[in-house]
Design brief:
It is built from 5 helices and 3 strands. The chain has helices at about 5-20, 40-50, 55-60, 80-100, 125-150, and strands spanning about 65, 110-115, 115-120.
């Protein structure tokens, strides 16, 4: 099995749990923060949705230079907008993983801010870290936010305490 096939299967599997948790985010509480250093609920939920779209930046491109970009965080007004963003980016990620040449994973990738280089590593490691592990990390944070808002948290790898009636 090729690496792109393995990653695509994992991405599709994880997208189910990610979409499930995003569907519960109450964006009418966009500004909720559990701590002064925390992201707002709305920013975190949008970040989780956006991560699914990082495959282009991490696999197709060879460099991510923050000084060359003009990223403006999206401000979504509804759960429907959040899910539409996620679904759109997921479709693009699937297309990239379906079409990418396997040799692309061996190429080196650099994250930088102008002259400051943060790191350079093989794309296979970059997509694992930034497109998958990073997603899981922030999805778990989002689960904590929901718990603190008394919103039942769905299971990702089997039933949660809420799924079990606990």
């Amino acid at each position: 099995m090729k690496l792109q096939e393995i990653l695509l299967a994992e991405l599709k599997h994880e997208a189910i749990a990610t979409r499930k948790i995003l569907s519960l985010v109450p964006l009418d509480q966009y500004d909720y923060k559990p701590h002064e250093k925390s992201m707002t609920l709305g920013r975190l939920a949008t970040h989780v949705a956006e991560i699914i779209g990082w495959w282009k930046e991490c696999l197709i491109l060879d460099v991510l230079d923050f000084s060359a970009g003009d990223f403006t965080p999206k401000v979504l007004k509804s759960t429907e907008e959040l899910l539409a963003l996620f679904d759109d980016l997921m479709a693009k990620a699937e297309k990239i993983l379906t079409e990418v040449d396997e040799a692309e994973f061996e190429k080196m990738w650099t994250m930088r801010n102008g002259e400051q280089i943060y790191f350079t590593m093989p794309k296979a490691q970059v997509v694992r870290t930034w497109c998958l592990n990073h997603l899981y990390h922030h999805r778990a944070q989002l689960g904590v936010y929901l718990r603190l808002l008394n919103i039942p948290v769905p299971g990702s790898y089997g039933p949660s305490a809420d799924d079990m009636g606990g």
